[in-house]
Amino acid sequence: MIADRALDSIRICLQAALKLSDQEASCIAPTATPLQFPQWTSLAHVQLVLELERVFDVRFDAEEIAELASVPAILNALARRGLVTP
Questions:
Q1: CA distance 1 to 7
Q2: Per the confidence metrics, is the pTM higher than 0.85?
Q3: Count of domains in the chain?
Q4: Which long-range contacts (CB under 8 A, 24 or more apart) does 56-63 make?
Q5: How far apart are CA 36 and CA 30, in angstroms?
Q6: Shortest CA distance to 42 belongs to which of 5, 17, 71?
Q7: 34-70 pLDDT, tens per residue?
Q8: Residue pair 47/17 in contact by the 8 Å Cβ criterion
Q9: Residue 85: inside a domain, yes or no?
Q10: What is the pLDDT of residue 1?
Q11: CATH number at residue 70
């Protein structure tokens, strides 16, 4: 998957997990972090991981889940699995 398409999919996952409006989701930058979203709580993080696993048909281990703390980290994790290309 091309990085731009992956970013669109990540936005959809974030929108579902963080309960964002369409407009809020469309503004998610490729550099986004939890600091920009007060609703990115520990529970929302678990929901995000579940959404990512569903959308990308992948499973993350506990260490990886802890590392998925920003959009760049998510893109890197997906790239390591060969699911995203630059």
A1: 10
A2: yes
A3: 1
A4: 56/9, 56/83, 58/83
A5: 12
A6: 17
A7: 999 999 999 999 999 999 999 999 999 999 999 999 9
A8: yes
A9: no
A10: 65
A11: 1.10.1200.10
